[in-house]
Every structure is written in C-alpha cells, then in structure tokens.
Write a structure and sequence with these properties.
This protein is of the alpha/beta class and 427 residues long. It is built from 18 helices and 13 strands. It folds into 2 domains: 304 residues, Rossmann fold (3-Layer(aba) Sandwich), CATH 3.40.50.150; 94 residues, STAS domain (Transcription Regulator spoIIAA). The strands form 3 sheets. The chain has a 7-stranded mixed beta sheet with strand order 3-2-1-4-5-9-8, sandwiched between helices. A 4-stranded mixed beta sheet has the order 10-11-12-13. The structure holds S-adenosylmethionine. The site of S-adenosylmethionine has 22 residues, from helix 2.
Length: 427
C-alpha cells in the first residue's frame, strides 16, 4: 500500500467499507460487479461464498444491499435528471448502469477510494463512455470539493446517496445538508438519500427471512460489519429513541425537522413498485419474496429538494477573543519540534481531504515527542477525520496531560463536545 493511501485510510477508515456492496452485488450475480472485482484482481472463487438458505446472517445481508441498490437506481431513473452525482460512489457498478442509459456520471468519494477506483473504470471503458464519466475527490463536509464535482455536470443533478450518512457525526450531517442545499440551489436537481430509513429496510429483509428472530440476527450481522470503520468512536445516536417497551426506534420527525431547518424539503418515495424484482429472489422461497414485498411497502427513499421560501441565516463562529474565524482561509499546517515539544498550528478546514497533511507532519517528527501543543485559533472547522488525527497524536503521548489544545473557538468546541472527544482535548 502506498504511503499516501495509508495516510488517507488512517484519517478516515470508513473507506474500508467501500467494497462491501460490490462484493454483495457480485454474490447476487451482477455481471458488472463481478467484472469490476476481476479487474481489481480478485478471483471469482474468493467472491462467491455460495448461498446457504439456512444462513440467516449473510444471506439477508446480501439481499439488503441488493434491495437498496435496486430501489435507489429505480428512483434515480424516475427522477428524470440527466446527470448522476454518485455520492459516495464506493466501488459499485452504477457507473455502467447509468452511462448505458445515456446519463452523465460523476463518481464522488474520499481520496483513498477515488484514486483506486477511477483507474479501474478507465481500464474498462472506451473513449465514448469516458466522455460521460468523471471521478472527483469529495469530502461531503467540504463545500468546495462538492462544488468542484457538481461543476462537472452538464445540467441539473440527481445526487444519490447510499451507505454514507450512518457514518457521519451529527455535525457532519448538518454540514452535508448545508452543502447539498447550496449545490442544488445553484445547479437544480434533487438529492435521493436511501440511508435515512436504513433500520427499516434491514428489518424488512430480516423479518421476511427470519420472522421473530429478525432483531437478534440483525444484531449478529451488524457485529460482523463493525471493525470495518471506527464510527463507534463518536456519538451517532441522536435520532434514536427508546419506546416505553424498551424498543429502539428512529425519530424520523426529528431528522425531517433537521433537513427543514437547513432549507431542505422532504418527499418520501416508497421502495415498492408493482413489478419490483431482485436477482436475490432466485435464492429466496416464494413465501420470503411475498413477505419482503409486503414489508417494503412502508420503506422510503427520501427525495430532497431546496425549499424556495427558505431564508438563510448566517451565524459567525466567534473565537475565544470574540472575533469570527474566517471560513475561507486556505488550509495550512505549520509544525516544529524542539526539545521534545511538537508545536503545531492549523489554519482552515480539517477534514478527510486536508487532515492527512497534519498526520504526515506528525509522523515525520514522531521520534522523541514528549509534549504536543496544538493551536487551533485559525481552524474554521474539524470533521471526524481531523479529530481522529488529534486522537492519534494524543494517544502517542506517555503522559496524556502533555497534550494541550489552545484557541478553541465556539464552533470547534461544539463539534468536539457533541462527538464526545472533550475528555481528550478540552481538559
Ligand atoms: C459503505 S460505503 C458505500 C459506498 C457505495 N455507495 C456503496 O453502496 O457501496 C461508504 C462510503 O462512504 C465514503 N465516505 C465516508 N465518509 C465520507 C465523506 N466525509 N465524504 C465522502 N465520502 C465519504 C467512504 O469512502 C465509502 O466509500
């Protein structure tokens, strides 16, 4: 693995989850998914784990991914837009599905994925197809990167999301909403988010296959996925509510209110269609298929558009001395090492795209560091990727009290507190 790729993955290990859907689609016998895996050098035999009807963990998990993939693709097609912004694209074959239908395709993802995936697709496409395809490095919390991707579009865009928002902190989700609104207001189009009702589509499949044991088996499946990323590090449960019977539910009203507060309107588009079909039906009993069709009638993809009547309110983020931090400052890391003290000052936005630079400078200086002083007075924003790098630095110290962060402005303080990192950085 190259050094750059290592740094990228270390600041945001969520990139490790990117290949899961591809493998599951290959298992459901999608030729294009198999072809991508082969191009990546993965042997067919290693991918096909075979389908065991009694396997109540892997089999429904495969069905879940195909269900989401098919439902979202269908809704993208029905949206009627000619440009698909696949956010995040991971390694799925959407690029082939939609260019075949004459749509322009813009695949967006973190650097670790784009640097890997775009050459693979380039090697599988001819000159005519290449004219319809773009890949862009995007961190959804970074507006400039999203705008650069959207600027490739030759018209209004359909932004499609599957498998992203579950990994974002509440603050990152808010930032994503603000960015989506700005992009859609400028370009026109819509945002299709298949993630909001994740619990519902998982339950629809697990109930169809496992009946009353659905919840227990779903937990087992989720355990299998954990470890691919470190989202448990932050608190990502602000929309989960416990009912009087102790059952966990998602508060969809609260999520919709968040979107509305960021100037976004929600329309719910059901997964179900009369002619709905999956390749996985080939591995399911008639009874399971009927139950699944029934169960998905109440599951929706959220179609989101800007509210034309929304009035934007700007709030300055004041620093400790009361001055606002300039959001447009370019990213910069300055560091020095003297007598074991690693001093670093950060300017601008620390996110998945910029944070590898800090990690690089820290790793280059690492030997003999006893104290770390971080000045964040000019840091406009920090995403979980940036916090992860701070945590790596913090953990490297023998005496944790020797980690000192200064100049924390109100916005950054709120992010650190809501993500649960205050015990490390704000002592
Ligand atoms: C589970 S994968 C889903 C990918 C693809 N949509 C699919 O269904 O296979 C999660 C993806 O989110 C990407 N991701 C995570 N955080 C991101 C961020 N802040 N900005 C852009 N992409 C991000 C990861 O790199 C990864 O490709």
């Amino acid at each position: 693995m190259s050094k750059e790729r290592n740094l990228n993955i270390e600041v945001n290990p969520i990139s490790n989850t990117a290949i899961t859907t591809l493998i599951m689609l290959a298992n459901a016998r999608y030729e294009s998914a198999v072809a991508i895996l082969e191009q990546m050098g993965v042997e067919k035999e290693k991918v096909f784990r075979g389908v065991d009807p009694k396997d109540m963990v892997n089999r429904p998990s495969d069905i879940v991914r195909e269900l989401r993939y098919v439902a979202l693709n269908r809704t993208i097609e029905e949206s009627g837009f000619n440009v698909l912004m696949d956010l995040p694209c991971g390694y799925t074959p959407k690029v082939f599905d939609f260019t075949k239908k004459g749509m322009q395709y813009i695949g967006c993802d973190l650097p670790a994925v784009i640097n890997d995936f775009s050459p693979i697709i380039a090697s599988m496409t001819d000159d005519e197809q290449k004219k319809m395809i773009d890949f862009q490095v995007v961190d959804v919390t970074n507006y400039e990167s999203m705008k650069a991707a959207a600027d490739r579009a030759k018209g209004p865009v359909c932004i499609a999301t599957e498998g992203l928002t579950v990994y974002l902190t509440p603050e990152e989700t808010r930032q994503l909403c603000v960015n989506i609104r700005r992009i859609l207001s400028e370009k026109g189009g819509c945002w299709l988010n298949a993630d909001v009702e994740t619990l519902e589509y998982y339950m629809a499949v697990f109930k169809a296959v496992a009946g009353d044991r659905a919840m227990e088996l779903l937990r087992a499946a989720r355990k299998g996925f954990s470890g691919q990323s470190d989202t448990d590090l932050h608190k990502n449960h602000e929309n989960v509510v416990k009912s009087s019977t102790g059952k966990m539910n998602v508060d969809y009203g609260k999520i919709e209110a968040l979107y509305r507060s960021r100037g976004l309107l929600v329309e719910k588009v059901p997964y179900y269609r009369e002619d709905f079909t999956l390749q996985s039906f080939g591995f399911m009993s008639d009874e399971e298929i009927e139950k699944l069709k029934e169960n998905i009638k109440h599951v929706n993809i959220w179609k989101i558009t800007p509210d034309p009547d929304f009035k934007e309110e700007y709030t300055d983020t004041a620093d400790e001395s009361g001055k606002a931090v300039d959001q447009e400052l370019p990213f910069e890391v300055k560091s020095s090492l003297h007598d074991g003290v690693f001093r670093v000052s950060i300017q601008g936005r620390m996110d998945t795209i910029t944070a590898p630079e800090l990690l690089k400078q820290f790793q280059e200086a690492q030997n003999g560091i006893t104290d770390i002083h971080v000045d964040v007075s000019k840091m406009a924003y920090v995403s979980s990727a940036g916090l992860r790098v701070f945590l790596i630095m913090y953990k490297s110290l023998k005496d944790k009290d020797k980690f000192v962060m200064t100049g924390v402005n109100a916005a950054v303080r709120e992010i650190i507190e809501t993500t649960g990192f205050e015990e490390f950085f704000l002592r």
